[in-house]
Design brief:
The chain is an alpha/beta fold. Helix content is 46%, strand content 8%. Strands 2-3-1-4-5 form a 5-stranded parallel β-sheet, sandwiched between helices. The longest helix is centred in the middle third of the chain and has 24 residues, at 89-112.
Length: 292
């Protein structure tokens, strides 16, 4: 790739880091350094609509990381295929190659300039086993948000109705009995299932990771700048906690907040609607510490 093309990857690279990159680029082949405790590789797993863009901005305050929200190419389609077919050895091989090819330049560039790498987009969620196979030292953050908030946001955005990403949005596996009646379900039920199934799947994946490679966070205390939660986040990525001024500058912007579409807030839902949603999400929500 021509040097000028890298400008679009990591625009906040310091002159010193550019110097490191250029020295490596023109010194001939040299083995890349590896991601390590000081420069980790980190992936955030979520349903989406939980504040992943804000989390990327918070992680970019860590001096040892480059953090990204949604990179191109987007991988939602690969994520759904991974959810459906990752038990198939051939499918897994293809998923590994496709995932690696789509992100390799970003990973290599971060290593070249001596930083770690973080990506927060939900499009990577169901690719977590693939990413773990590529980088066994990778760290994973499970970021959740109260189901009512995510479901309302999904309803306002037209999920499972007319959203551009619906073509690759998660649906039940063919072996799941729910698949037979999926098309007849109301949108509210589909989005409730999506919240529950995604978080259930992530919890199951995280349970098999070494403790030092997993962190579970709720969006609500993180984005209200709860001290203990921020300390857990930055400790997990090997960084000191940034100044409150820098953190508040990011949290005050409410990045990617939902501004269009109409669906009533949870306090206006009737009892039947609440019961219908909790029927889908209740067990998983309670495991994550949420109440109706």
């Amino acid at each position: 790739m021509p040097i000028h093309n890298y400008l679009s990857l990591l625009p906040d690279t310091t002159p010193r880091q550019w110097g490191k990159f250029l020295c490596r680029k023109f010194a001939g082949y040299q083995p890349l350094p590896a991601f390590d405790d000081e420069h980790p590789i980190v992936f955030v797993l979520s349903t989406g609509r939980v504040g992943t863009q804000t989390l990327a901005a918070l992680l970019n305050l860590a001096p040892n990381l480059f953090a990204h929200h949604e990179l191109f190419p987007k991988l939602y389609g690969l994520g759904r295929l991974a959810y459906w077919h990752s038990d198939d050895p051939l499918a897994r091989t293809i998923l590994i190659e496709a995932t690696s090819s789509s992100r390799q330049k970003y990973w290599q560039y971060a290593l070249n300039v001596g930083r770690g790498y973080a990506e927060t987009s939900p499009q990577l969620t169901f690719l977590a086993p693939i990413l773990f196979q590529l980088y066994p030292q990778a760290r994973f953050i499970h970021l959740s948000r109260h189901p009512y908030a995510v479901i309302r946001s999904g309803m306002r955005r037209g999920w499972y109705q007319d959203h551009p990403s619906d073509a690759t949005r998660l649906t039940p596996k063919a072996s799941d009995p729910l698949a037979e009646r999926w098309q007849t379900l109301p949108r509210l039920d589909k989005i409730s299932w999506l919240w529950a199934e995604t978080n259930r799947w992530v919890m199951e994946f995280m349970s098999d990771l070494p403790p030092q490679q997993r962190l579970t966070l709720q969006a609500e205390p993180l984005f209200s700048a709860e001290t203990a939660t921020l300390e857990s986040l930055y400790h997990f990525v090997g960084s000191p906690v940034p100044s409150p001024r820098k953190i508040q500058r990011i949290l005050g912007h409410q990045l990617n907040a939902q501004k269009t579409g109409h669906f009533p807030p949870p306090q206006e839902w009737d009892e039947k609607m609440r019961q219908d949603v909790w029927h889908w999400v209740g067990d998983v929500a309670e495991s994550l510490g949420y109440t109706p």
